[in-house]
């Protein structure tokens, strides 16, 4: 098996909550490609295929190295054109919209609920790096972020935008999943795999869609380990 996906792992190497790595995993499964996941931590960049880049996901396929989840999705459609993730320019544009929604609405709402949880689950050698980098990013301590109020309500409000398409179609891609679905569901795997309990209540059409996404590919996402 030559295709390798470098995947962010916590102290328990089976805990893999990265939303961007999950988008790529869904994309690889959609393409029916065999792949191996390589767990890496936050701090030791020497484990990464490109230590100077120092981020995941990264795919290594033979002699090719591809970085960044959006770039990986586009590369997969070029190199492996069967089962396209975005079959038309319209589908690609819709996936860009959902990616923008995730960054503008869902991530800002959910992140304060996750940072302290992920810090607690990170390997000891990663905790200092994780704390410093996240506190610089958010301009608050981890403890201040965890004490933020009203985030559950903000998350639930952000999900309302998905109710209209999912009230009419089984998937964001229409009658079958595509890159739009994998972009959003990858993001939802972040809280799912960072907490033992569900942190918010999704609107019914969104909750039903999430169950369908968890069942895809013989339940690959549903089988992913959650914290105990």
The percent range for strand residues is 5-15%
User: Given the structure, what is the number of helices?
Assistant: 9
| β-strand number | 4
Cα(first) to Cα(last) distance is: 32 Å
Q: Give the overall pLDDT as a whole number.
A: 97
- Rg over alpha carbons: 17 Å
CATH topology of the largest domain: Glutathione S-transferase Yfyf (Class Pi), Chain A, domain 2
Helicity, in percent? 40-55%
List the secondary-structure elements in sequence, H or E.
Answer: EHEEEHHHHHHHH
Stretches with pLDDT under 50, minimum 5 residues: none
* CATH class label of the largest domain: Mainly Alpha
CATH architecture of the largest domain: Up-down Bundle
Largest sheet: 4 strands, mixed
Shape: globular
Arrangement of strands in the largest sheet:
2-1-3-4
Walk me through what this model shows:
- By secondary structure, the protein is an alpha+beta fold.
- The protein has 2 domains: 3-79, Glutaredoxin (3-Layer(aba) Sandwich), CATH 3.40.30.10; 89-219, Glutathione S-transferase Yfyf (Class Pi), Chain A, domain 2 (Up-down Bundle).
- It is built from 9 helices and 4 strands, in the order E-H-E-E-E-H-H-H-H-H-H-H-H.
- The protein has helices spanning 19-30, 69-79, 89-121, 124-138, 142-146, 151-158, 160-168, 179-192, 204-219, and strands at residues 3-8, 36-40, 58-61, 64-67.
- The protein has a 4-stranded mixed beta sheet with strand order 2-1-3-4, covered by helices on one side.
- Helix 1 (19-30) crosses helix 8 (179-192).
- The chain is globular.
- The mean pLDDT is 97.
């Amino acid at each position: 098996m030559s295709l390798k996906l470098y995947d962010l792992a916590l102290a328990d190497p089976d805990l893999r909550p990265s939303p961007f790595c999950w988008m790529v995993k869904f994309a690889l499964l959609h393409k029916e490609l065999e792949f191996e996941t390589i767990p890496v931590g936050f701090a030791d960049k020497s484990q990464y295929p490109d230590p100077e880049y120092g981020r995941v996901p990264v795919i290594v396929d033979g002699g090719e190295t591809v970085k960044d989840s959006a770039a990986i999705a586009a590369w997969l459609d070029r190199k492996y054109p069967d089962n396209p993730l975005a079959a038309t320019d319209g589908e690609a544009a819709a996936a860009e919209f959902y990616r923008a929604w995730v960054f503008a609405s869902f991530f800002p709402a959910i992140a304060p609920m996750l940072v302290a949880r992920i810090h607690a689950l990170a390997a000891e050698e990663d905790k200092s790096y994780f704390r410093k980098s996240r506190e610089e990013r958010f301009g608050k301590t981890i403890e201040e972020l965890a004490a933020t109020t009203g985030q559950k309500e903000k998350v639930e409000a952000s999900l309302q935008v998905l109710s209209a398409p999912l009230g009419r179609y089984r998937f964001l891609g229409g009658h079958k999943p595509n890159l739009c679905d994998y972009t959003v569901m990858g993001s939802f795997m972040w809280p799912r795999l960072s907490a033992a309990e569900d942190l918010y209540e999704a609107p019914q059409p969104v909750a039903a869609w999430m169950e369908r996404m968890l069942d895809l590919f013989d339940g690959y996402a549903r089988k992913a380990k959650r914290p105990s």
